[in-house]
Amino acid sequence: MKVAIYGRSTIDNTSEYSQLLFHKLNEYKTEILIYEPFYKFLKQKIQLTGNISTFNSHADLIGKVDTVLSLGGDGTFLETLSFVRNSGIPVLGINTGRLGFLANVAKSEINVAIEALANKKFTIEKRSMLSISAPSGIFGEVNYGLNEITVLKKDTSAMITIHAYINGEYLNSYFADGLIIATPTGSTAYSLSCGGPLVMPGSENFVITPIAPHNLNVRPLVISDNNIITLKVDARSPNYLVTLDSRSEILESSAELTIQKTDFSANLIKLENQNFFTTIRNKLLWGLDKRN
To answer: Which residue among 109, 174, 232, 259 is buried most deeply as judged by most CB within 10 Å?
Structure first.
């Protein structure tokens, strides 16, 4: 078994559970590649033994690993995908952070997860992604994400106006703090906190969710992800902010954005006891009666 590990240099990743992870991988004589800055951090905190080397880029992983482990929370998981890119390498998230929709293997389940990987007792769940393009070549080669693309006001308290078009047809002008274009995976993230709906993975949709719209009649909208979305921004400020999952760029107000589904998917590892309904019940506390 060949496994790459990506993580952030945080105190959450130096617990006994991290030590347990490496101990369990060594039990199966795993070839381990660790993100080099993370490796330098870890070796000062825990004992690292076994067949370990490091990686620094996307090219270091292609054809060299079977699986990538993301050690952290959902933000770390999204960063991990920027190394995986369109390679198809499956990713498993071990949650050492907080809520963990994507990194949904609890620290207490590390033994079970590594045994499942070693014995190939898991399935691959394909998650759709979206890409963004602009004349400036925004986000370079990694101009795609798993969760959402967000347009936000910048440098002023004034709202911005976002003119949205679907396949060239005018949809609406959103006078708001911003606008979120989310995938089904991203429907449980920023979009949800702004009143957007939960959408099952595999639904082949985009969710368009305004952020604090001035007109309260403007509600989130679900469209098919085979549509191409174009956004044009009017703002008092000369610039506005665009975020793509955990990354951000500043654009001039005249810049036009094009958003569409990518022609490849992210491959997420799903263990035998995991499914979307269990995740949302556990993470969103559905059915929990505080009176008891």
So the answer is: 174
